[in-house]
Design a protein that fits this description.
Elements: H1 2-35, H2 42-62, H3 68-87, H4 90-103, H5 106-117, H6 119-155
Length: 161
C-alpha cells in the first residue's frame, strides 16, 4: 500500500512539473514575442551604423545633397530587417528560450509580459532604441576623450601624473 501511495504521489508530482513546464514555455514564448529583441540588439546597432556609413560615403562621393533624415530612416529600416531575420532563426529562438528559462521564474515572466504590454512598457520600448543610440554616442565620446589623454601622456613621458 505504501508503494502504491508513493507511486500515485510521484505521478501527481510529475504531472504538476509537466504542467508547470508547459506554462513556463508559453510564458517564455510570449515574453520573447513582446520583448522586441531585434530593436535593441548589438546586431541592429552595428547594421544601423554600417548602413549610415555606406550611405554617407555613397552620397558624399556622388556630390548629392545629403538628406540626413532620409538616410537615418533607410539605415534604421535596413538594420531592423536584418535583425528581424537574425532573431527569427530557429537556433537563435532556441537560445533565447533557454536564456529566458534560466533567467526568469514563471512569476517573473508574467510580470515581464505585463510590463511589455503596459502603456509605460510600450512607451519604454519605443524610447529605448533612442536611449541606446545616445548611450553608444556618449560612450564613444568618453572613449575618444580617454584615448586622447592616453595619447598625450605617451607623447610626453616626463609629465607627472
Amino acid at each position: 500500500m505504501k508503494y502504491l501511495l508513493l507511486l500515485v504521489l510521484l505521478s501527481v508530482h510529475a504531472s504538476a512539473l509537466t504542467s508547470e513546464s508547459e506554462t513556463k514555455k508559453k510564458l517564455i514564448e510570449k515574453a520573447i514575442a513582446t520583448s522586441n529583441h531585434s530593436e535593441f540588439s548589438d546586431i541592429t546597432m552595428l547594421a544601423y551604423l554600417k548602413g549610415l556609413t555606406v550611405q554617407l560615403k555613397s552620397q558624399s562621393a556622388s556630390g548629392e545633397q545629403i538628406d540626413y533624415e532620409k538616410l537615418k530612416s533607410k539605415a534604421h529600416k535596413d538594420a531592423s530587417e536584418l535583425a528581424a531575420q537574425y532573431y527569427s532563426q530557429p537556433e537563435i529562438q532556441t537560445a533565447l528560450r533557454d536564456i529566458y528559462s534560466r533567467a526568469f521564474t514563471e512569476e517573473e515572466l508574467a510580470q515581464l509580459i505585463d510590463f511589455y504590454e503596459s502603456d509605460f512598457g510600450k512607451h519604454f520600448m519605443q524610447m529605448y532604441p533612442m536611449i541606446f543610440k545616445l548611450k553608444i554616442h556618449m560612450e564613444g565620446e568618453v572613449i575618444e576623450k580617454h584615448l586622447e589623454t592616453l595619447k598625450n601622456s605617451n607623447e610626453n613621458p616626463n609629465t607627472k601624473e
